[in-house]
Design brief:
The chain is α/β, with parallel strands linked by helices. The protein is built from 31 helices and 24 strands. The protein starts with 14 loop residues before the first strand and ends with a strand. The relative contact order is 0.10.
Length: 752
């Protein structure tokens, strides 16, 4: 219900936040906080034409703090965590604003009510058992009538044209994404304003970049590429052609693009060249580079940082932000929300899991970044890696970002077309022929063909495989699991020139080993590498022979891309074999099964015809699995129901949308002198560790399964500040050859 406004109270004595040990004169006034949040939120929402919506969400999100009950609580416990008081059942200060939005605006107010009611505890389901928007809207709240009229009497914001159309056509998915975007603007604004008051030092540590940073990045990339010299091989000539095509296409208007380049064709830097020029040509704000695996992030980021060397020399803050797994706990706290990345950076490199799961998350810490996807260039590296069970919701989200939020999306892969709309695949993206950045992808494939692929049908035992590898001076063997990689490496060595690469090694460790591997390859020395699929994208290794455990055709193509990569040999050799180890991951099992089915039918398993056949079987002919978790079914409209016109199941959708069921938890590894020094800084930091320190620590994390994390907490790793898990001893459970010594099958840590 609407609470009458009082005109005779001095609202200067109403506070939003306290400071422990400081008098009320130093506390943050409620009006200052609401105005600060509103100013930030309207700026964020302006990017997608919803400035007034962001402002209203900002000024109404804490209306409940105008209640005498909340102010009494604040004064009684000024050292308490008032910012999250409602989450522990003390004082609910967010339901008031949600109720007021519905009372003032009717149906449009319900969109705001989702954001306001959930700005601490996360997006609720519209109805259901436990926490829900219906329960919040029907809840008795403490009177808050002291709010100034200028705050309480906001006008109804105009509907952005696309939202008006979506309401008219009853496009529930478009409406829920708009509600989610307003939620993102609000929670990010709330976190930043709160941080600026409660932790000014941390707020000042947030990096800033010059207004022309994207132009300077583009120039630095051009200078970096010129440093390669003139193309001296056929492969390098083709790479130069791809780069030039990407530069030309950057002038196109925003939309959905495909970049179909065979592995080894230089698409990593070329796609960045397109993204930067496209952003500059269309006033887009940042580049989000999405890769399928956590283990690939640091490799792409290293490539980008080398290309941005000129900026760093000029004293510009590093423009490349790697967003690995979040180092914060699952529980929502002030510290976890303030620590989460909001992707406010020129170039963000992140994972498919982080990207897609954030688009369907209910959590404040994950959703706060979403508004920064508006007017961004989003490069989806290995775009075909979306699991078939999540195709429909993922593609629908991509479509909305490009249609209504000014984003451009680049589907960057060697194995197109995976997700283009076609007969029988109506959930696909509308990608026209003019959207392909590189002319004649088929001709490019033929020109860059430099590998023969042999498929062995008989199962190969590890002992026999190790004997084959030892007989070769330079060879790469890629397997499907970390455990298999460790066991095979144990059979192989360690000997001089023998290397292991997997997700059990922290990113900094892997980067160091990759540097050693490249040097040995360039010098013609013995170099045998056992790796998981982490080397299959963004890694410029060049072996004469590659062994690949059976996998999807796209993975086989990626493995072949590490073979004769520079085209300096007449022909490289890739051998696909059946391993005695079979992955337990459904995605790997499914893609391998489809590859087994089509490989005997094609002379060239990497041809565009074979690729299309693979995706027809894996994607296009499995319509019953496109939304297997029923994510899209959680968003309905009921315009006849004035109390709940939007039947959105935000929490249920978030629970079901897990690209990887057990994403694990990170452990920080004090590897090397730098890793030890960073962990010492973490231990010695007071309160919430600085943003720059947390970003650096991302390079020293290893993911472990949840049950392992729970079993060894406090034994194998300590919880620094009760939040950050740090491996106690690298001597005991971390090998300099293979990383974390863990048997994934039994969940037991092994001695290094």
């Amino acid at each position: 219900m609407k609470v009458p406004m009082s005109r005779d109270r001095d609202t200067r004595n109403y506070f939003a936040h306290t400071l422990p040990g400081r008098p009320p004169a130093d506390w943050q006034s409620l009006e200052d906080h609401l105005e600060g949040v509103a100013r930030r939120a309207e700026s964020f929402a302006e990017v997608f034409g919803a400035r007034a919506w962001g402002r209203v969400a900002g000024v109404w999100h804490d209306l409940g703090k105008y209640s005498d009950a909340f102010q009494a609580y604040l004064r009684a416990d000024p050292t308490g965590d008032a910012h999250t008081a409602e989450t522990v059942g003390k004082v609910d200060h967010s339901s008031a604003g949600a109720q007021h939005a519905v009372s003032r605006f009717g149906v449009p107010g319900h969109i705001l009510s989702f954001a306001i009611a959930g700005h601490h505890s996360g997006l609720h389901d519209a109805q259901g058992e436990g926490a829900s928007l219906a329960a919040r809207l029907g809840k008795r709240v403490e009177p808050w009538g002291t709010a100034p009229p200028l705050i309480a009497d906001q006008p109804l914001p105009d509907l952005p044209p696309f939202l008006r159309d979506a309401l008219g056509r009853k496009e529930s998915f478009a409406i829920q994404l708009f509600a989610r975007m307003i939620f993102s603007c609000l929670v990010d604004a709330d976190f930043l304003d709160t941080e600026a008051f409660m932790n000014l030092g941390q707020s000042k540590e947030r990096p800033t970049w010059p207004a022309d940073v994207l132009a300077r990045m583009s120039r630095s990339l051009d200078e970096h590429v010129r440093g390669f010299g003139l193309p001296s091989t056929e492969v390098n000539k083709r790479r130069a052609e791809v780069l030039e095509a990407c530069r030309r296409a950057g002038a196109h208007r925003p939309g959905i693009f495909t970049l179909t380049v065979p592995t080894g064709g230089g698409k990593t830097l070329s796609s960045l060249a397109f993204a930067l020029r496209h952003a500059l040509a269309n006033d887009l704000h940042r580049v989000i580079y999405v890769v399928p695996f956590t283990s690939i992030i640091e490799q792409n980021a290293d490539i980008f940082r080398r290309a941005m060397g000129r900026l760093v020399e000029e004293g510009v803050e590093d423009p490349v932000v790697e967003h690995h797994s979040n180092l914060d706990p699952d529980e929502e706290t002030v510290s976890s929300r303030l620590a989460a990345e909001n992707w406010d950076a020129p170039l963000v490199v992140t994972t498919s899991v982080q990207f897609y799961e954030s688009l369907f998350s209910k959590r404040t810490s994950r959703c706060r970044k979403l508004h920064n996807l508006a007017r961004a260039v989003i490069v989806l590296d290995e775009a075909q890696a979306i699991p078939v069970d999540f195709l429909a919701p993922c593609l629908r989200a991509i479509e909305e970002l490009t249609r209504n939020y000014g984003a451009s999306v680049v589907l960057c892969t060697a194995t197109q077309p995976a997700v283009a709309r076609r007969s029988g695949f109506d959930i696909g993206l509308d990608i026209g022929n003019e959207s392909e950045i590189v002319p004649d992808p088929g001709g490019l494939h033929r020109a860059l063909q430099r590998v023969s692929v042999t498929v062995e049908r008989q199962t190969v035992r590890d002992s026999d495989l190790a004997s084959r590898l030892v007989a070769l001076d330079q060879v790469l063997c890629i397997v499907n699991t970390r455990r298999h990689a460790q066991e095979l490496f144990d059979l192989l060595g360690p000997g001089e020139g023998d290397y292991h690469l997997s997700g059990f090694m922290c990113p900094e460790h892997r980067s160091a080993r990759l540097g050693e591997i490249r040097r040995r390859l360039e010098m013609g020395l013995v170099c045998r590498v056992i790796s998981t699929q982490l080397v299959e994208a963004g890694v410029d290794l060049d072996f004469p022979v590659v062994y690949r455990s059976m996998a999807g055709l796209d993975s086989i193509a990626q493995a072949a891309g590490r073979c004769n990569r520079e085209g300096e040999r007449a022909l490289g050799h890739t051998i696909v074999f059946e391993s005695e180890h079979r992955s337990s991951e459904a995605f790997l099992r499914d893609t391998a099964a489809k590859a087994r089915e089509i490989l005997p039918l094609h002379d060239d398993p990497l041809s565009p015809e074979a690729v299309e056949h693979f995706f027809r079987l894996y994607y296009w002919d499995q319509s019953d699995r496109w939304d297997h978790k029923k994510i899209l079914g959680e968003f309905h409209l009921d315009r006849t129901n004035e109390k709940l016109p939007f039947l959105f199941g935000f929490a249920r959708a978030a629970e079901r949308f897990r690209l990887i069921e057990d994403t694990g938890r990170p452990i920080i590894v004090p590897w090397g002198e730098e890793g030890e020094a960073l962990c010492d800084r973490l231990r010695n930091s007071w309160g919430n560790p600085p943003v720059k320190l947390r970003r650096k620590l991302q390079r020293y994390t290893v993911q472990v399964p949840l049950q392992v994390w729970a079993r060894y907490r406090g034994r194998v790793f300590e919880m620094v500040h009760d939040e950050y898990p740090v491996l106690i001893s690298t001597d005991t459970h971390y090998s300099n050859h293979t990383g974390l010594r863990l048997d994934e099958r039994t969940g037991v840590f092994l001695s290094a």
